[in-house]
Amino acid sequence: MKRYFLVILLVIGVLLNSCITNKDLVYLQDKGDGTESSLILNELPKPYKVQVSDILSINVKALDKELVGIFNPVESANNNMQNDAGLYFNGFTVDLHGNIEFPILGEINVLGFTIDEIETKVESELLKQYFKETAEIFVTVKLSGLRYTVTGEVGGTGVYTLFQDRVNIIEALANAGDISQTGDRKDVLVIRQYPDGQKIHHIDLTDIKAMKSPFYFIQPNDIILVKPLKRKSIGAGQTAIQNITTISSILSVLVSTYFLTRNL
């Protein structure tokens, strides 16, 4: 009997300790001395530098629209096709050498440049090679959406595109259905592309200090991977009620087994 009693206690202990608590679920908790509860994010993310395979949307404007028509041959098409496919076919893709092919100007190297730097570069080249200063041209350059991938313990895995300049990781996850109850918010992986290859980074989204992390704001082509909690791997319930139900079932089986073996 004592052996069965010890087994029962062990099972109960494991199941009760495997409950998913608020500390596992709540984002941006103050885990320090309370001074972080009103944390202000003073440091903005560094400007993104364009990489290979990025797609740029470049628009040249002037008082005389006919004057810049050659540089915007697909402007009307873009107005009717503002989606990933339209941007893919009508945007300027950065090739393996870091160049884009621009009308009249030919190849322009943009690898490692920020969006503002590319605007200045294109405008400068246009004024140098094609326009006069009196043309009063205006160049706008944007990334054709912030594209990222989410996989793992989330509501909806997949590749997403948001048409915003800045997106933090919580917004990105919310757009993918948020992290499920069995997802590990304390160790979310961000796989980021760099000129020399991909690197894996870790961020604890249950800690308010995550807002100071360089990976709090996502970048184009980021992969966000949410691992399952260890509790899920042992098949424990997510809540106390689920665990009580499991314990009751196990107790019922153990008691029945005990009396059956006793009567043999």
Automatic annotation (TrEMBL):
GO cellular component, one term: cell outer membrane
SLBB domain ranges (all copies): 147-226
Gene3D superfamilies, per database record: Outer membrane lipoprotein wza domain like (3.10.560.10), wza like domain (3.30.1950.10)
Keyword Glycosyltransferase: no
InterPro entries: Poly_export (IPR049712), Poly_export_N (IPR003715), SLBB_dom (IPR054765)
Polysaccharide export protein N-terminal domain segment(s): 45-141
Subcellular location: Cell outer membrane
Keywords in alphabetical order: Cell outer membrane, Ion transport, Lipoprotein, Membrane, Palmitate, Polysaccharide transport, Porin, Signal, Sugar transport, Transmembrane, Transmembrane beta strand, Transport
Primary residence: membrane
GO BP terms: monoatomic ion transport
Membrane topology: Multi-pass membrane protein
Similarity field: Belongs to the BexD/CtrA/VexA family.
Protein name: Sugar transporter
Natural source organism: Algibacter marinivivus
Taxonomic placement: Bacteria, Pseudomonadati, Bacteroidota, Flavobacteriia, Flavobacteriales
